[in-house]
């Protein structure tokens, strides 16, 4: 069965960019609910419980139809949030191979940020914006609705931002662009670089 992972930092570690209350509710309520509902969906299918959540959402077509939507939403929610917590940390500058690759692909980190912000702010409704390594092995900015994961679409997530209102509403209300600007101050570029290096293997 799946469990809620512990955060590698305190709830107030990302203040003032992401507030402690939002982090606490996001982790203990929203993420916990995805974990609970994923476990519930798999109750009838003990064999599937042996898979990793990543494997479940990578091969949605083999998931029994009666739980496929639940696995897509809650398995995706579990995978996406587990990933999100890991790539957050205050005070890390862009660096390493990922910075070189971003500079090459997007003609500089500022252009990358503009394009990533554009994706995050124009996503209609709830979902995520991502920097992924696509199936051609190239960096690409993509959006996914709801809790759909890039993994399901044969892409490897390098960096991602949760733009569901629950991720920012307490501090930013309807001002998603301000939340996205703040997010750029709490990206753990060391972790993002690790994801990039692993994805390239
Ligand atoms: Mn969320």
Q: Mind explaining what this structure looks like?
A:
The two termini are 29 Å apart. With 201 residues, this protein is mainly α. The mean pLDDT is 97. The protein is built from eight helices and three strands. It folds into two domains: 20-86, Fe,Mn superoxide dismutase (SOD) domain (Helix Hairpins), CATH 1.10.287; 96-200, 3-Layer(bab) Sandwich (minor pseudopilin epsh fold), CATH 3.55.40. The structure holds manganese (II) ion. Residues 26, 30, 81, 162, 164, 166-167 line the site of manganese (II) ion (MN). Residues 26, 30, 81, 162, 164, 166-167 line the site of manganese (II) ion.
Low-confidence stretches: none
How many domains make up the 3D coordinates?
Answer: 2
- Under CATH, the topology of the largest domain is which? minor pseudopilin epsh fold
Biggest pleated-sheet summary: 3 strands, antiparallel
Kindly report the average pLDDT value.
97
Identify the CATH architecture of the largest domain. 3-Layer(bab) Sandwich
